[in-house]
């Protein structure tokens, strides 16, 4: 056996109790609930959704497809990208079949594929808003239309559905879409020398190329990336030609070119600017295309954007997007906690970006950020019941402030039934159902194990890796490796940045291995081998860089990958009266009856006495009257699942 023979990952079965609860929740609650919502059969209210933009309690997403297919009459309802709610839901369902076969659900999804095929135009075009109400405006206002974004989401779903079920029609819809786009876009005479205002198609075409091997799809993705920003006035020219005031999404023409990452070519862009989801979808596409083409300019851009986001513009929970205005990044180190945005979709997109960077290079930081998103920023977007959701994920919240201050009205302190712009719920569902695809990265003869989610993984030549743990509550990680036929291969295991020290045993023998870019490596030659890794799960008091004004003089609490929060349900309000010293005593215990089982941290604190109502608003400084107390902290992802009240991640020190 050639010891350098390429290893292929064949199957990963998630065995983690933590993640299987979520994965089964998606199958049993989330997917049926969202299907009812999209069919206008759920009794929901989006009255409190500050993003509903006048939409009522219904989705109409399936109705739009039926109208486009000629099965119903009527007008399009919702946003121009309303179709994508259906496509992301379909993708999530496709992944779920890999661990929870469901004949009843498959009948629904097969019929949905038939409906989508019927709705598709003969030339492959499919965007129901334009098919139903504005066929003369196809590809005429790309700044706002989301046409390529919409079709990109179907292409992703179609590839996933084909991989899960072998349904050829699902893949054919995707290839016909891509062919349609290829026929319309490019620098040849008669083609449109532009791109979509919302990046997505780039990563979708890369996935389609990965599945089909058809190079024109990769070339088209490469074109869109290279063309973005070449003519900074492209969108303006289209807007004027289409009718300056004939907007699809009012107000979007007034946003700066940086909002769309279109002010200059990508290879010249230095910072991560604009709409946060657009940025990370763009970055995912860049990483995909850079890996397949070897484009060094795109890879350098990936590194620049990554470093700017992770080291200057990311919250401790992994959330990104500092302002509700445009759901966007602002400037370096501007990370307000109570007016932030932190959209769930942005954390999901950051997970995509991290995964693709791991496919390019073995760097532990990519695994660290992926882990941060999975256990904090993204997971916060769904309630424990699977039927309520956050669009915005703040690090400080107060129901009185959200109700009384218009500048904080976007911050909900309890998760909503649904949203007028419902991109987040299905996006999170597709991440959870596909989490098995985020645990290993294989490159040649090297297997990287970068996520500590219990699983049974099977590779070619009989290689099997079984990982067992009680993560994220325990740092004891056990590997059982079977290697009967392959010969020697290299295994890399990530040592998280939060674990400054660790203990390692290989075959029961204590070993010390150097950490290289966040990984330890060992050559596996034996037919059977055990590895025991013990990570440092001590509770840590964290501070932000003192360049971050909002967090100056504050501390946050972290244990393992999990960021903790104080909630009014456990601590007498107001939470701003508490002071926690960086040397404060802490204790930890696991409570299997609280919030479906969570680790709970108690931290010694001092609580100031609340001034009586009506006392002079300003007065001379007096010695504070503090009462020693124990604060109770729960994982950030689990907040807002009990009573409605205040929450804080960053605590006064």
Automatic annotation (TrEMBL):
Non-reducing end beta-L-arabinofuranosidase-like GH127 C-terminal domain: residues covered: 540-652
Gene Ontology biological-process entries: carbohydrate metabolic process
InterPro entries cross-referenced by the UniProt entry: 6-hairpin_glycosidase_sf (IPR008928), 6hp_glycosidase-like_sf (IPR012341), Beta-AFase-like (IPR049174), Beta-AFase-like_GH127_C (IPR049049), Beta-AFase-like_GH127_cat (IPR012878), Beta-AFase-like_GH127_middle (IPR049046)
Record domain Non-reducing end beta-L-arabinofuranosidase-like GH127 catalytic: where: 11-436
Pfam family, one: Beta-AFase-like_GH127_cat
Domain of life: Bacteria
Domain Non-reducing end beta-L-arabinofuranosidase-like GH127 middle: 446-537
Protein name per Swiss-Prot or TrEMBL: Glycoside hydrolase family 127 protein
Lineage: Bacteria, Bacillati, Bacillota, Bacilli, Lactobacillales
